[in-house]
Design brief:
Blueprint: H1 3-7, E1 15-16, E2 20-26, E3 31-41, E4 45-50, E5 59-64, E6 70-79, E7 88-94
Antiparallel strand pairs: 1-3, 2-3, 2-5, 3-4, 4-7, 5-6, 6-7
């Protein structure tokens, strides 16, 4: 498939930026935060890189560091856990769309 044709099926445009984040998960005994960073993001979701294994369907909180300093809830849509060549990458769908100031 042509790369340009594939990009036109996205529901929202992407911003490619490595933004430091924390991925917060419920461990059953409390919440645990793991460091990570975004690879890209849109108003509807983000692709992240982290050290922790994430499973499709799992809900996590993403805490954006720096100037964004915002917490969003997301659901894991896909993950490369089990075959991490460059660390674990996962695609998250935000439960509420991200508001980006113009």
């Amino acid at each position: 498939m042509d790369e340009k044709a594939g990009s036109s099926i996205r529901r929202s445009g992407r911003i490619y930026a490595a933004v430091p984040i924390e991925v917060v998960m419920d461990s059953g005994e409390g919440k645990i935060a793991y460091p990570g960073s975004t690879v890209d993001f849109s108003t509807l979701g983000t692709r992240i890189r982290t050290e922790v294994e994430l499973r499709p369907g799992q809900q996590v909180d993403v805490i954006w560091q720096g100037q964004l300093l915002k917490s969003l809830q997301g659901r894991v849509v896909w993950s490369n856990a089990g075959r991490p060549a460059r660390g674990v990458e996962a695609g998250l769908q935000f439960l509420q769309p991200l508001e980006i100031a113009a």
